[in-house]
Amino acid sequence: MSVVEKIRSAKSTAFSFELLPPLKGNGIENVYRTIDTLREFDPKYINITTHRSELVFRENAQGLFEQVAERHRPGTVAIAAAIKNKYKIAVVPHVICSGFTREETEYALIDLQFLGITDLLLLRGDKAKHEREFSPTGHKNATELQAQVNKFNDGLFLDGSKMKSHIEHFSYGMACYPEKHEEAPNIESDLFYAKQKVDAGAEYLVTQMFFDNQKYYDFVEKCRSNGINVPIIPGIKPITLMNQLTVLPKIFHTDIPEEFAMELRKCKTDAEAVEVGVEWCTKQASDLIAHGVPSIHFYSMMATQSVKRVAQNVF
pLDDT per residue over 260-279, tens digit each? Predict the structure, then answer.
């Protein structure tokens, strides 16, 4: 059963969360600890992020520094397979444009087929840290990536040759932005591209994190009026650090409501910020469930214990 089928068949609001692969050199134990902490809430699926290589300076044997590409968090496909094997929970690896050639994407799709992993989240991904603007290695946007996956589902490789054996089709979701993507000129443009994704085969959409539920409700209403009728999964995150009051809006281009910001400004320690974050996220989740959302997706990076507390309060 695909992720979208699990979401549609759930009798109440479903629970899911996102994981990061461990940093290069670290083991998988922390990943397992996060899952062990949250599995009691019956996650319908677990997302695993994918990270591009970044240019870093390394000293060579001659004592000179040279630029090399290094991926700090490799292993998305292997992590997904390990989770599926150990926990029998549906896994959704991210497949991104950023930093990957079309050929590398094709090889990843082949590997995922061999592993029986057929749920994906398709994303453009972030620009490299050294870039001022996104510079594609392969696909320049998520809809181009989507076209490759659709072609693969049709049994065709990049070069047009046909596959010799039957494959199980990939089922996939894509991203949407209730407060618009940072590069979009307006929300109407975002709605245009969201509909384009759905018309081309995206079976559900997952939002960028937000802290104001009304913006999500307004966005969903606009989507429905534009003929976008797939599940739109709200993505939320409990704040755990005082500096996230300014860091998260800068990185993710999301507004923090003044009522919430005011309480965070009162915090003297990160421990106090954790309490405020859990309280606000609990209110968000409770309100979303009351409005009958199909699922709530939690961004759990640096927030596993807070996500657990929120889930205990609402699920």
Answer: 999 999 999 999 999 999 99
